[in-house]
Design brief:
Elements lengths: L2 H22 L36 E9 L20 E3 L8 E6 L5 E8 L7 E6 H7 L6 E10 L4
Parallel strand pairs: 1-5, 2-4
Antiparallel strand pairs: 1-6, 2-5, 3-4, 3-6
């Protein structure tokens, strides 16, 4: 196994561990809505109607700082193997699975944008995500460079 393969294997294992910790151990109080059990029925009583709504899952929200990267990286290969395109709504995250979709909200102005994770980063302590130029522009963050954000996981690709 090459050094790069070992690094990607460790990154993938770390992402799965994080995902399991964030979603697998949820309790009703921790974010999963569980319908209450109906009271016991007496004989001859018709069953109570069931709600058609499926159980809701509230995925965790991550809060921290976001930065962006642009022209200096444009065209270079990302961790997913695709060329970085600063004009697409993509992002780098240290542990989410590649292909995950995340809603990023700028806490300074309330703007939100959906991005697809296709790279690894950021490499600066304290930052939780690196956005493409297009995503930073959509959030109104190009001039600031670093902004406070929240991340909400929208989808994780099937492995």
């Amino acid at each position: 196994m090459t050094r790069i393969q070992r690094r990607h294997t460790r990154s993938f294992a770390a992402a799965l561990t994080l995902l399991a910790a964030l979603t697998g151990c949820a309790t009703p109080r921790g974010g999963v809505s569980v319908p209450s059990s109906p009271p016991p029925r007496e004989s001859g009583e018709s069953p109570a109607p069931r709600s058609a709504r499926p159980t809701e899952r509230k995925l965790p929200i991550q809060k921290g700082e976001a930065s962006w990267y642009g022209a200096a990286h444009h065209g270079h290969l990302t961790a997913s193997g695709e060329p970085y395109d600063m004009y697409r709504l993509t992002a780098a995250h240290p542990s989410l699975p590649l292909g995950a979709h995340v809603l990023v909200t700028n806490l300074k102005n309330g703007r939100s944008v959906e991005v697809r994770v296709n790279d690894r980063g950021p490499t600066v302590n304290g930052r939780i995500i690196d956005l493409s130029y297009a995503a930073a522009r959509a959030l109104g963050a190009v001039g600031d460079g670093v902004i406070p954000v929240t991340l909400r996981i929208l989808s994780i690709p099937a492995q």
